[in-house]
Structure formats: C-alpha cells, structure tokens
Amino acid sequence: MLDDTEIVACCSDDGDLALSEAMLIPRVLKVLLSLPAAKIDFWAHGMHVSGGGYVMVMFYISQGWIKPRLVRLASQLPKGAEAKYDPSTHILWFRRDTYGSGPDERATILHECTHALRDIMASPAFRNEGMYGSKIVGQLHFDNEAAAYIAEALFYIYDTGAEMPVGEGDEAEIFKAANAIARGLKDKKGPRVDETDFSDLRDKISLDPIYAGLALPNAPDDIGRW
Ligand SMILES: [Zn+2]
Known about the structure:
The protein starts with a helix and ends in a 14-residue tail after the last helix. Strands 3-5-4 form a 3-stranded mixed β-sheet. It is mostly helical. The protein is built from 9 helices and 5 strands, in the order αααββαβββααααα. About 5% of the residues have low confidence. The radius of gyration is 17 Å and the shape is globular. The structure holds zinc ion (ZN). The site of zinc ion (ZN) has 4 residues, from helix 5 and helix 6.
C-alpha cells in the first residue's frame, strides 16, 4: 500500500523530481494547510498576510510554478541559513528532506512561503489589482524580510502557544522585535502592524551582518518576475 509520500513520488509529472524532494513537498504543504497558517490575518506595511494567501502558495507549488528543492552544494544557501526563497527562479531551497519536523522548522517554512507569497502578489496576474488589497510593489528587500519574520513569529505562537525562542547574538534582536509585534496581532482579525515597529524590525534585520552581506539597506524588493 502506498502512503501519501509515495503517491507524490510515483505520480508526479515533474520528471526530474528526486525522491528526496518528493518527500519535502508534503512537509511544506502540511504547513501551508495547517490551522496555525489558516489563522494568520494581519497587515504589515501594505501587505495583507493571510491564510488564503498561503493556500495560493500551495496552489503555485502544486502547479510546479514554485519549486521546493534540496540544496546539492553548501553554497546554494547563505552560510548559517537553513532555507531560502529565490524569487529569480521561484525555488524554495532547503538543506534536508526531513525539514519541518519541529515547530522552529515549521515556522521557517512559513517564513520562506511568505517570501513566495509576496512574489505571487507582485506577479503580473495580481500586481495591478493588488492581491487581497495588498500594495507591495516598489517596496524594499528588507520590507519583504520584516513581513516574513512577523508571519513566522505569529505562526509559531499559533502552532505552539508560546513565543519563538530568541536565542543569542544579532538574530536574537530580530526575533525579540518580531515576537513583540506578533504578540499584538494574536487572535485579532486583520490588525495593522504599527509602522514604527515595522521599520524598527526592518532596521534590525538590515544591520545583521548575514543580511547586510546579501543586500544594501535600500535595495529594492526583487520580486514579481514571472
Ligand atoms: Zn527571509
């Protein structure tokens, strides 16, 4: 008897899809269709982040337009990163096919899928109307990053009932700021993130040496090229 993983592996029409990547896809879809993801509903700097948006990401993955992939070379992900969304190729990169077992990894999947959602929202299909009323065209690379951290922090709270562990170092400041914002959004329908809190989070991300090595503080958000 086949389980769901095997069905995906044997029946996919993506001929070059490796078995390990076929194992990864159900893990990503499980996060996108989870109750914690469905409960997400807030506005951050012109972006409406919602459970309906994550269902759209799932649809794009099922059509093969967004592609979860495993890295083959260490350099395919920034040093220290576990996962990444690349808008130029629409690939969701992960280090392992076992990704998504614990709450921190599920929250990371949600974070990367928030980047994917912005990429869809800025695509020709939606950019003029503004998907769900969002207005994200012309924003900065680090606006995108800040929105993803807020979604990640709120997802973690809905998934576990507790706030994301903040850890140590520069990223701890990012997690603390994201947790504080998420605390104010929890259990509300469509609240708006305070713009000062949003720009404070964005600054903390852009000053982090890992992120500073990836983009300049005022770099445009490179999304919507489909
Ligand atoms: Zn990110």
